[in-house]
Design a protein that fits this description.
alpha/beta, 11 helices, about 35% helix, about 15% strand
Length: about 400
């Protein structure tokens, strides 16, 4: 009997130790990059950038995943000055630890393909998708616009810490960080000439111009102001800027054709961030509709349908243009951001009988290609539409 209870106690201790270790690994401490200041690689407030670094282990020690954090943009002195006093414009306001879930989790069950990689979450503090580069601070607000320099400094820092010897490497990001991953994808590949496999993943980063949908001019003006204020043009792909107005080259629909590095897109056909903020409707009750899909009017539902058609068509064209190098998982869940938590990573809705985690893993490791778009749902499914089923609007 004593042996029996002793064995149970040992099992309990081992179980508790395993849980604590997993939790500790998934909570990652911030690293402030003080040396970046001397190089001019600074946040909007002129202070140092930061990242969260979970070191690889086991057979993942030479594999690297770089995640560019998102957080929208600013395109005016006043807007950027406001952000300089918040966590999207200063590392001073970043949390001291960050929880790594989904694709960044160190739990093998939740993240079987990448759990033991070196995983870095780069703190967003420039509000230009890591593309700005203006030498002088704004004379009225003292805001500094150096997103491109932050990207370059972080890459240099990580190369010195072992990324130069990477066997596999991924540049990814979500939202504005996903756009940054698109725009820097080929730059990232050029830093790793001897790495076996280098690819990019954009999560909710395909921000549409959609010239035939309402609000196209407003979207173009908004991003043109961001490009001008942050001095972004020099960071944009030259094949695109040579054939059209440079400010349009922040829209992925105009630049993906020029990207040579393999890239995977995780998108919702009904991204609430874009539907809410990017001028797709000027109806007075649009905010009520996007906050509660059940109260949308027929005309508002039609707006969502047209957005979904355009988003799907844009992604389909990416795949047709680059059938071997482009992967995609385009679902109909009403959400912005997909691989940051376990529910929407290993527990996501299925396309092609695969979750997002399975699709990305097979594509990255060249086990199979993956280009799946949900055409069955004309309107958004619920926010929390995991594997099995989820209610649809009708």
């Amino acid at each position: 009997m004593v042996d029996h209870w002793l064995k149970l106690l040992i099992c309990l201790v081992v179980s508790m130790s395993t849980r604590v270790t997993s939790a500790e690994i998934d909570n990652v401490t911030i690293t402030i990059l003080d040396n970046a200041v001397a190089r001019g690689a600074v946040c909007l407030d002129g202070g140092p950038p930061a990242y969260y670094f979970s070191k690889g282990f086991g057979d993942g020690v030479n594999n690297w995943l770089i995640d560019l954090q998102g957080g929208g943009w600013c395109n005016t002195p006043e807007g950027c000055a406001y952000r300089s006093n918040h966590d999207t414009g200063s590392s001073k306001y970043k949390t001291t630890t960050a929880r790594f879930g989904g694709m960044k989790s160190a739990n093998q069950t939740r993240n079987p393909e990448f759990y033991n990689w070196n995983i870095i979450n780069v703190g967003y503090c420039d509000c230009s998708s890591y593309t700005g580069d203006v030498e002088a601070a704004d004379p009225t607000t003292n805001v500094t616009r150096r997103g491109s320099r932050i990207f370059d400094f972080v890459m240099e820092d990580l190369l010195a810490k072992g990324m130069a010897n990477a066997e596999n490497a991924i540049l990814t990001g979500g939202s504005a960080g996903g756009l940054g991953a698109i725009l820097h994808c080929d730059d990232f590949r050029s830093l790793l000439p001897n790495t076996k496999r280098v690819k990019c993943i954009s999560d909710s980063g395909v921000f549409l111009h959609a010239k035939d949908l309402p609000g196209a001019d407003q979207r173009a003006v908004y991003f043109a102001k961001m490009v001008a204020y942050h001095g972004v043009t020099k960071s944009l792909p030259s094949p695109c800027t040579s054939r059209m107005n440079a400010s349009l080259c922040v829209f992925p629909e105009y630049v993906v054709r020029d990207i040579e590095t393999p890239i995977f897109f995780i998108e919702s056909a009904f991204d609430p961030y874009q539907l809410i903020h990017h001028y797709f409707s000027n109806e007075s009750t649009w905010a009520n509709c996007t906050a509660n899909l059940e109260v949308c009017t027929p005309s508002q539902l039609q707006t969502m349908k047209e957005y979904g058609i355009t988003l799907r068509k844009t992604l389909q064209e990416f795949g047709v243009c680059k059938p071997k190098s482009v992967g995609m998982f385009v679902h109909s869940c009403y959400r912005h951001g997909n691989w940051y938590d376990d529910l929407t990573w290993t527990g996501s809705a299925l396309l092609g009988n695969k979750t997002i985690a399975q699709a990305v893993g097979d594509w990255f490791f060249d086990r199979s290609s993956f280009q799946e778009i949900d055409y069955e749902n004309e309107l958004p499914r619920s926010f929390d539409c995991s594997k099995a089923t989820a209610p649809c609007l009708s």
